[in-house]
Amino acid sequence: MSQRSENQHQSVNVLKDVAWIRLFEDAADGSTSTRCVTVREALLQAHIFKGIDTSLNGVQFGAISRFLFSVAAIVIRNQDPRRPFSKFRAMKFSEAAIDAAINQLSEYADLFHPEKPFLQIAADLEIPVTSSVKKLLPYMPPDRAEEFWSSSEQPRSLDLPEAVLALAINSYYSFGGNNRLDGRACVNGSPGIRYPGKDFTATEVLWHGGSLFDFICFNVPKSWVEGTGLPAWADPLGATALKDQKIAEHPLWRATWGSNTARCQWRDFQMVAAAVGGSPYRPPLMGTEKHEAKKWWDLRNTYDPFYLYLPVKDTSGGKGASPMEVKAQRLDFGYGATQLEAEWHAKNLSAALRNHSQGRIMVDEEAPLVFLRHLVQGSASSPVVRRSEILVSARSRWQISESRADAVSEASTKVKLVMIELGKPFSKKGRLAAIANRRGDVEAEFWAEVRVPFAHYIVNGSNDVSIDPNVWAEVREAALKAFDTVAQSVPHSKIAPALSIARNRVGHNIARLLNLAENS
Predict the structure, then answer these.
(1) With contact defined as beta carbons under 8 Å apart, do 250 and 243 qualify?
(2) How much is the pTM?
(3) Could you tell me the superkingdom of the organism this chain comes from (predicted)?
(4) CA dihedral defined by 269, 274, 277, 281, rounded to 10 degrees?
(5) Counting beta carbons within 10 angstroms of the beta carbon of residue 469, is it exposed (0 to 12), middle (13 to 18) or buried (19 or more)?
(6) Structure confidence by residue, pLDDT tens digits, 102-152
(7) Where are the alpha helices (DSSP H) in 226-289?
């Protein structure tokens, strides 16, 4: 049965009728509790709520965040068009502006509308939907009904709050695959996720805040508020996409357009089945060919406010390869916190993120960062999210003052070079070939040993413009301790002399790298 026959088109507006936004709030006893509220209530009380529930997985957190940002942009536009952004900090979202925004966005916000249901295509009485509601989630392999997280129990049906969140996840985070709707296959054109390569981690970067209001204003770009563009979920035909300019779609519309959609079956206000496939709507400037579509969303992705893209040298050497390309920066799973921080600072991503965030409604470089980390596996044509986590980290670990940024970058690069030097003896060539597989162990030990001096001297050093040189003796000592820890666990007595020689060589090479005396 269709959603029309089952629910007789009782209007359910996802902006004000469904409590699907999961937030933190302060409880009466001083603790923090979670509460599910409507979009309207979340915005009305945004200055009171602490923020989005960080016990959610990264995809859930990201879908709620991106949707709230898209609505908040219209609220801010309605609040006081004449007020400069610099005066916005002391404000809260007004009820009149929230209701005006909801009125503007409600045409496509009805979950059960017979012709334009929220984030779905209309049900077809001739095409019954029989596939599982799990199809809406990117962490289920598209061609197999297996669980992606072994500990999770996926339901057979979804109540209204769960269903609305699942639809938002499908719109913002769905991948390509073999699933089709009316002949249209799912493709990799969703705004919140991209294929970073197998076993790599797509990483979103957001600014946290003391309240939901701060979180929204720290992350919503001014360009989303300016002009007349609506989010694509509220304007799938693109009527507002080109009103302000003809050379590119409005930034808010472009950032919220998704390549995939769903057709759902509902029963007693429960989603009981869902089919997924490609969207029938295309951006006005996309073109009709596959290569044109990919070019469009690749360009759109580089302008996404929540991924940090930077120019990198193309070392592929392929025909026609450009000497420079842009790549999204990542915090890959499988690495310890100190190594990730060293990679971050070696690339001077602190400065890059500052520049990337200058166009937000409010800027607070003292705010913590929120990393949404999505481990992607599967093939490029049929990827799957295997793990999705939220990392809320203190500003002191990731943000460096402008005066120290270059020195910290240089020092972090040097620490990485020490790790490389330490791992050289653990090679398949030479006398230590039998323990080549221990290279990962010695590197992990090094990052554990160097954690304290790296944080104390390099990241949080007291000198405003340089690094205390005392750190380098401790870095060398950390490397030798790591070598000794692994060497002592090796049962092969025959290679003990070779290990001793290798240790001396490592110590000598690291001392030379760090300009240290041998006995320092």
Answers:
(1) yes
(2) 0.91
(3) Bacteria
(4) -10
(5) exposed
(6) 999 999 999 999 999 999 999 877 777 888 899 999 986 544 434 544 445
(7) 251-256
